[in-house]
Amino acid sequence: MGYRLALRTFVGFYPIIPMNFIQWMGLVGALLLLMGLSSAYIHRLPISTSTIYLATGLLISSVGFDLIDVNFVEWAVWFEHLTEIAVIVSLFISGLKLRLPLKNPAWTAAYRLAAPVMLACIAGVAWYAHFVFGFDWASAFLLGAVLAPTDPVLASTVSVNHASDHDRMRYGLSGEAGFNDGAAFPFVIFALMWMEYGELGGWVGGWALHYLIWAIPAGLLLGYFLGKGIGRLAIWLRNRHGDRGGASDFLALALIALSYAGAETIFAWGFLAAFAAGLGFRRAEIKVVNENPAIEYENNNKSNKSNDSDLAVEINKVGESQVVAEHESIAHPPAEEFVGRKLDKEELKQPSKAAGIVVAEIISFGDTAERLLEAMLVVLVGISLALYWDGRAVLLAFTLFIVIRPLAMLLFLIKTPTGKVQRLMIGWFGIRGIGSLYYLSYSLNHGLTDKIDDTVGITLSIVALSILIHGISSQPILNYYERLISSEQTKSNTR
Q1: Measured between alpha carbons, how far is 391 from 374 in angstroms, rounded to an integer?
Q2: CB 33 within 8 A of CB 348
Q3: Are 459 and 400 in contact (CB under 8 A)?
Q4: Is 70 part of a structural domain of the chain?
Q5: What is the largest CA-CA distance in the chain?
Q6: What is the CATH number for 287?
Q7: Distances, alpha carbon 359 to alpha carbons 95, 116, 121, 152, 444, in Å
Q8: Which of 122, 205, 258, 382 has an alpha carbon 20 to 30 Å from 356's alpha carbon atom?
Q9: How many CB atoms lie within 10 A of CB 153?
Q10: Sorted alphabetically, which InterPro entries does this protein's record hold (predicted)?
Q11: Distance CA 295, CA 454 (A)
């Protein structure tokens, strides 16, 4: 208790009175002001913004200034809905940023990450929890499933952020975060049903038929075609009327809500539908751009190809003709170049520019929403950690981050269009975050009755450790990766 007394003495008052709404508003404003004014300095530091939010939560929790306590179990209903909103918004925006066709080799790693690699991580964590922590198999499997999804909200540093970014590592991580946040859900349900029935039996067949064979493809197809259809309609209307003040933020929210609710209504996976809706909307934009390229972008393919960080490496591997053919199959849409811009009516009469401005406005809105949701939820994680920190998570985190995921990566990404260094980096950047919080709170509200404190404590601790470790290491490792890519390009150009 001495450190708490010291903290209270330092700020000049004792005891601390619980904060009211106005004081909380002031604290939030101060935090946002700090992040807004210091962003340039933060980007130079080997930490992420999530690390600062986590530290803020700890600072105002019972281990710091003791301003507030957040009991995750008691707040489980709120956490479920808050994280649900954060995940579906982030999944939609993640899908919107991925512009290559689904058959493109860049997607190969994402498919394997969302299936065999995820299953290997679930199995590895379950084995560890059973034999080291003494969990029964159902509880151990649930912990593995809860910790399976990588995070689209917290992984922005290592994800695709521009239309011309074809980097295999970034594409793999972005695609993985989009797919496995939904693909992990069947296995959370499996663990909860296992707990309910007490043993494996005939119910497994029904589970597979409903939650795998139906719910996964149904969610993906519904979301994709809904996104593509609404995307074509929205672009056509913007182009036809030359509307300079279109409510693209409302359009994004409507599509997210309709895809998610529609999928849940037909008993499919809403997370996958939200992600696929983003993919479908982007395909609508690309189709318009390919059919009606803006004059100033018609000759962009050649110049853009030289900016692709994987191009030089690919040419060495498979030959120039194959790589050039792959990259020429997609025209670079101008969407990201329109972020923050206003076009006049004459420009909006060009379909490609109308398409670009719609997508650009949605991406801008989505990025802002993601940052706000990230700040709120990570601060809450920091506050909750004061009650639920579990030291056993340190060794499990080491095992998951250093052993289980990297080994699965090296095994299952063999013969994919990724280099060894890229596979190792993908193995390291398996960031755990908001998706795990959602599955944890969902489990608490839908049948988790055994090992509650253990499961909550270990999950929150793993998420916090991931925010800290990956946040500190991401920029130095990415700097090394960029230097390596630059070196490969230089070697290729001198040949």
Answers
A1: 25
A2: no
A3: no
A4: no
A5: 73
A6: 1.20.1530.20
A7: 12, 33, 35, 19, 37
A8: 258
A9: 27
A10: Cation/H_exchanger_TM, Na+/solute_symporter_sf
A11: 60
Q: Could you tell me if residue 304 is inside a domain?
A: no
Query: Quick check: is 403 in a domain?
Result: yes
Q: What's the rounded Cα separation, in Å, for the pair 153 and 145?
A: 18
CB 405 within 8 A of CB 117: yes
Distances (CA, A) of 391 to 10, 48, 66, 388, 450: 29, 23, 21, 10, 20
DSSP secondary structure string, 163-211? TT---HHHHHHHHHHHHHHHHTHHHHHHHHHHHHHSS-STHHHHHIIII
pTM of the prediction?
0.86
Stretch 54-61: mean pLDDT: 92
For the chain, give the number of residues. 495
Count of the separate structural domains present in the chain:
1
Name residues whose C-beta falls within 8 Å of residue 181's C-beta, 6 or more positions apart in sequence: 87, 91, 149, 150, 151, 152, 271, 275, 435
The residue type at 64: G
The pair of three-digit structure tokens given for residue 291, joined into one six-digit string: 């059919």
pLDDT tens across 328-358, in order?
Answer: 444 444 555 555 456 656 666 677 778 778 8
Tell me which residue has tokens 């479920």: 80
Query: Do 284 and 227 meet the contact criterion of CB atoms below 8 Å apart?
Result: yes
pLDDT in tens, 416-456: 888 888 888 888 988 888 999 999 999 999 989 899 999 99
Q: Which two tokens stand for residue 216?
A: 């996964």
Look at residue 103 and tell me whether its pLDDT is greater than 70.
yes
264-317 pLDDT tens trace? 999 999 999 999 999 999 999 988 888 877 665 555 544 444 444 444 444 344
Residue 7 token pair? 């903290």
Q: Looking at the domain assignment, is residue 250 inside a domain?
A: yes
Portion of the chain with pLDDT greater than 70, in percent: 80
What local confidence, expressed as pLDDT, does residue 243 receive?
64
Quick one: which of 402, 404, 380 has its CA closest to 464?
Answer: 380
Structural domain range at position 270: 76-295+332-382+390-493
Tell me if 118 sits within 8 A of 184, measured CB to CB.
yes
What's the Cα-to-Cα distance from 356 to each of 136, 291, 335, rounded to whole Å?
Answer: 52, 13, 4
Concatenated DSSP letters of 121-141: HHHHHHHHHHHTS---HHHHH
Q: Return contacts of 43-48, CB within 8 angstroms, 24+ apart.
A: 46/472, 46/473, 46/475, 46/476, 47/471, 47/472, 48/154, 48/157, 48/467, 48/470, 48/471, 48/472, 48/474
H or E element: which one contains 434? helix 434-445
Answer whether residue 63 shows pLDDT above 60: yes
